[in-house]
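Most newcomers find our protein records easier to grasp once they have seen one. There is nothing in a record beyond a sequence line and a structure line. Getting from the letters to the tokens is the skill we practise here. An example says more than a description, so a record of this kind follows:
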Amino acid sequence: MNQGPLTEDELEWLDEVLLKHGNEDSVLDVSELDGLLTAILSGPTVIEPAQWLTALWGGEAHVPHWSSEEEMNRFMDLTFQHMNDIDQRLNEAPDQFDPMFGYLEEGEEEHTIVEEWCFGYLRGMALGDWPPLPADLEPALGAITLHGQEENAPLLAQMTPEEYAESQEAIQPAALQLHAYWREQRAPQLH
């Protein structure tokens, strides 16, 4: 299996496959997939691939009828390669961890879209059935839930462009903080 980050072409192909086989309950783009995988890798327990791959499609009934075995194998290979890349960054090079947010171009301006990533992250958290966090980590989770829950839309709409940009910039360090916390909790206790 290939190592390292996926190429633009590979990411576009994954995006197309997620959309092609997607439904209203599934992960629909690479940004959401990136968030889901980040949470799965960051949480307190190991989630088996069979469980999260089924959840990715919105449940057993929605697992795709692949066009070919080649399509299925390529999807699996690229998804696991991407997951390994995230895992490596989280554990060995946190300074290189960069959530894969979406972008929207409006004329000359490019807007960062974080909602899909945050939504995917919260899906991964729910899959891992995370226990409550200590109070000092609530703001980290809050940075992600702010953009990952639809009921927060009115709150986001009231923010100034500066506040909104700051709330987006808080997501990456928050994800690293949560990963570091759970990694410490999972580490074998030395006595």
